[in-house]
Amino acid sequence: MNNIYDLYFSEIESFLKDEGEPSFRAKQIWEGLYQHRYSSWEEFSSSPKPLRQKLESHFSITSLIKVNSVFSTDLQTEKILFQLKDSNYIESVLLRKDNRLTLCISTQSGCPVGCIFCATGNLGFKRNLSSGEIIEQVIFIMKALEPNEEKLTNIVLMGMGEPFLNYDNTISAITKLNDANSLNIGARRITISTIGIIDRIKQFSEKELQINLSVSLHAPNDLLRQQFVPIAKKYPLRELIAACRSYFDRTNRRITFEYVMIKGINDSPILAFELVKLLRGLNCHLNLIPLNLTSHFMGKPSDTSTIREFGKILLEKGIATSIRDSQGSDVQAGCGQLAGKIIQKQH
Ligand code: SAH
Ligand code: SF4
Predict the structure, then answer these.
(1) Which protein residue has the closest C-alpha to ligand 1 atom 10?
(2) 134 phi and psi, to 5 degrees?
(3) Catalytic one among 91, 133, 162, 258?
(4) Smallest CA separation from ligand 2 atom 6, residue
(5) Which domains does the chain have, with CATH numbers?
(6) Per-residue pLDDT tens for 186-204?
(7) Which of 40, 96, 137, 220 has a 20 to 30 Å separation from 73 between CA atoms?
């Protein structure tokens, strides 16, 4: 059965046309999905019953089942585990900070990239999510927030998976997130995080959207990067940085680089100076993130003093740098960690 959230408006119109239904019904259905966020076809009371039955026999409207949710001790972070129709798992993370309510969503179940410190990478690749499955994470959480009249302020595609290895479905999902007649979330409130799939960054630049792009760097040279990001062999840093430059030139959006700090591995002052050289002249922001501990990777997070020292070198050389607190690390909000636990239990 098809997921109704996989469809564009025009596809709903053609379905209705094929079924001999009037075209104005498409708008009613669309509003039911994106404004009222109904979770069963019965609720579409503006559509006649025979049409509702037709829709029900062709399309699913809820394909995610919430299996588990874990809160951080300060209750500011909630990690939600969803089961998909084919019994694969994905995670979404809701983060409260200051006046922001950010939802971090998945684009794949598992991930084929296999970064050695990443719990999702360790799970291996299960499959791409459809655009509907990406969107539904947002719809589900929006609905859950309704009783308290809370609203999401930001969406980050930084959960399980590599968005640019599921390019078409990711683009289709962000189109619907952004579209004024769908979820109407401003492009500047949406962030895509990628490990650096260069051809897709270029393709994405050409769309000239105002979406924030975040690139996971983790090292200032190819040799070191290849040690924990296997795909780095295919995508050299020089070309990656050039693609980031052209993203900025096309969109005027400042790129964010993510750099996971691993004790004794990528946190020395020499590497900080090398990073300065790599990023020189690029309008960017660097986030230093202490490694989240995972059960399969023996690395430790860098000491706070080392991270500060590393950040100081970059700041002094004119690179905007911040140290990200590891919000939610006590609920293992690092991507893939909750799904990993459940899958381990099953075996
Ligand atoms: N595949 C994309 C998006 C999902 S990963 C990417 O790699 O950018 C989102 C972020 O979580 C990445 O920056 C990744 O480096 C980070 N991450 C993964 N495992 C982590 C861990 N154990 N500790 C800290 N950050 C981690
Ligand atoms: Fe995949 Fe990102 Fe994890 Fe690397 S860090 S394995 S790209 S999800």
Answers:
(1) 158
(2) -70, -50
(3) 91
(4) 121
(5) 2-60 (1.10.150.530), 65-346 (3.20.20.70)
(6) 999 999 999 999 999 999 9
(7) 137
